[in-house]
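Reading group handout, session on sequence-to-structure problems. Before we discuss, look at one worked example. The prompt was deliberately terse, the way you'd type it at a terminal:

> structure QRFP-like peptide receptor

The input record follows.
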Amino acid sequence: MAQNVSNMSNDSYTVSKNIHEESGFPPLVRHIYVGYYVIVFLMATLGNLFALLTCYKNYKVTTTTILLSYIASLALADLLFTLLTPVDLAAFLASSWISGQFVCRFQSFLIETSYTASVLTLAMISRERLVAVTTPLLARSQRIKQRKLIPVVIWVISIASCSPLLYAYIIVKDNDSVLQCVNIGWGDQGRQIYYSIQGLLLFLFPLMYMIYSHYRIFRVLKKSEAMRKRMTIKPGSQSLQQRKITKMLAVVTCIFVTCYFPFMLVRTLKYFYVFNNDMLWRLVQLMIFTQAAVNPVVYCFYSKQFRTVFKDLMWCRWHKINHFREGNHTFRTKSSSLEACEPVRLEALHTGKDLSTLISNPSPRPISKRSSKSSVWL
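And the output record:
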């Protein structure tokens, strides 16, 4: 162990004390912190495991859906982040790093990878919803298999962009012989440059795009609702489902921004030595940890299918899940002739074109039988 630990020079010691200075939490605060952590850890672990299983069981039947792939990617990122947090809790309780050099590097690398994948996944979800709401015929004519590879590409980009952190984190020992896993491998300037670039390209720009996408989506939905009222057209079941899913994803995005933005801000202030407070640092870490537990609750609140499958998973009724999904799939097949008209009607509302013109001159790309079925996950 001692061979893996570097004794810090005076300059490195100053950097370590600025970044990882412990403020000596009172016993009551430590107990509240640990109790809250245990509750959130259990909720996040079970919730995201159930979310992944739900996506898997539905994916086996409803293979045309795209949204399931993105929700699975988001749940995987949250679950990965959750399972890595006990290492930090152990260091907090011991007031020293006790997990070794290998864990120091890979835990820091994987945590950064997980929330990079989260923000990129949310950005691509925003794009999918924007296309589905503004140009529904185009969304249905796009190839499903190629779009399902996007979450894989997201994780590849996340791993590649965070891999330099494997060379940044090292274990150091201060003058009090306290071990710390610190990001000083590149020095102050290298760390500041890296996190500035990453913050702009992999947080701020995707965040701006998400805000823009949701703004456009809600404008289109509001305009469509106003046109329906003037034309006395009742919204179809698919249209109502579009609105409900859009609201769910908007809530997930808002929760992500609310929890992650303070963390990104405080981390930037710490690394540029503008402000440093260990109590605040722990608080913003708990915020992003809480976000991982809240997402599965949001899925259940907005989706009856998630609630049903969650209940069946809790009672180990796997056969009932398959029966429910197959029955739902059959119902959608019988009603596809009615629901297939909904995208055309939506496009007429969005573009102002004549409905008969769109029906007589459909999109040049054929819509497959699978993609024409109404899906509760679309």
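Points for discussion. First: The domain at 25-312 is CATH 1.20.1070.10 (Rhopdopsin 7-helix transmembrane proteins). Second: The longest helix spans residues 187-231.
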